[in-house]
Specification:
The protein is α/β, with parallel strands linked by helices. It contains 10 helices and 12 strands. It has an 8-stranded parallel β-barrel, surrounded by 4 helices. Strands 1-2 form a two-stranded antiparallel sheet. Helix 8 packs across helix 9 and helix 8 packs antiparallel against helix 10. The radius of gyration is 19 Å and the shape is globular. The N and C termini lie far apart (about 45 Å).
Length: about 325
């Protein structure tokens, strides 16, 4: 499947252009998403590839290695066509009850070997620090990542959930290719400084949560119940006090997308992220093949300046005090 050049971008250090939509595999790991379903997960990855996606984003902590294992199985015979983006520097207790930040060199060294084994590959294209660790000197972390780069085990280095100050600090010791922040119509904190920083330094931005954990999928209803360890049970946007306001905004956005572009809310939400910066790569989270439907609908068009203003007006009308995604942050070591 071919796409317009505007629908692709090059990540520094990686020799193949990538589609500006990547597959996010947090849910595939099962943890915080109600458990895994490997058969459907593998079919989902294959369908994403068939639809032109060539970046698969994962992490060790997604199912405590399970997401990486599933990705590794799915990519057998397809590895050379795919950019694998995984992460490092989240650790967990033996009982998996506590996840914490850990960028010590010895942890990085252990994680790279574990990830390579699970992913069934001898190199990782984009290796990202999952969360900053204020207990470990940034220089030590960067030096270890540089060693992995020299050894050919990673092609490019990225960071996730870093502030501008933290990005500035690590760039004193290593080259950055990308950032991975939360970004969607409802969670726009990065517009203050992180997104301008990415633009200034030509960093790819793998934007996670572009559908805001399903709120912008167009399928969320007032009677939706979240069970087990579902992340949305702790997201204040889904609490009784706020859910109605967010749903009201989605209904009006859905009407706007249909009336003006004959597009779905989902396509509008992804297109909006794409239009904020040419380096943005929204992570399309999916765990079932049918959830890949609609990728093409987000590509090949753009929102006008007036459209963007109208969307802002809709958001301001329904959501007086936007809620940030800080509830997802894991504790320090």
């Amino acid at each position: 499947m071919s796409y317009n050049l505007k629908d692709t971008v090059t990540i520094k250090g990686i020799d193949k252009p990538v589609l500006r939509i990547a597959l996010g595999t947090w849910a595939i790991g099962g943890w915080m998403w109600g458990g895994p379903d490997d058969d459907n997960a593998i079919k989902t990855i294959h369908k994403a590839i068939d639809n032109g996606i060539n970046v698969i984003d994962t992490a060790p902590v997604y199912g405590f290695g399970h997401s990486e294992e599933v990705v590794g199985k799915a990519l057998q015979g397809k590895r050379d066509k795919i950019v694998i983006a995984t992460k490092v520097a989240l650790n967990w207790t033996d009982d998996k009850e506590k996840v914490f930040r850990d960028t010590r060199p010895e942890r990085i060294r252990q994680e790279i070997e574990d990830s390579l084994k699970r992913l069934k590959t001898d190199y990782i294209d984009l290796y990202q620090i999952h969360w900053p660790d204020d207990k470990t000197p940034i220089e030590q972390t960067a030096i270890e990542l540089n060693k992995l780069h020299k050894e050919g085990k990673i092609k490019a280095i990225g960071v996730s959930n870093f502030s501008v100050q933290q990005m500035e600090a690590i760039r004193q010791y290593t080259d950055l290719a990308s950032i991975q922040p939360p970004y969607n119509l409802f969670e726009r904190e990065i517009e203050k400084d992180i997104l301008p920083y990415a633009k200034k330094h030509d960093l790819a931005a793998l934007c996670y949560g572009p559908l805001c954990r399903g709120l912008l999928s167009g399928k969320m209803t007032r009677d939706r119940v979240f069970n087990g360890d579902d992340l949305r049970k702790s997201d204040p946007k889904f609490s009784a006090a706020n859910f109605e306001n967010y749903l009201a905004a989605t209904e009006e956005l859905k009407t706007f997308a249909k009336d003006n572009y004959n597009k779905s809310l989902l396509a509008l939400a992804i297109r909006w992220v794409l239009d904020q910066y040419q380096g943005n790569i929204p992570l399309w989270g999916a765990r079932k093949p049918e959830q890949i439907e609609g990728i093409q609908d987000a590509l090949g068009w753009s929102l006008s300046e007036q459209d963007l203003k109208t969307i802002d007006d809709i958001l301001n009308k329904h959501i007086k005090e936007p809620i940030s995604p800080e509830f997802m942050a894991p504790p320090s070591r």
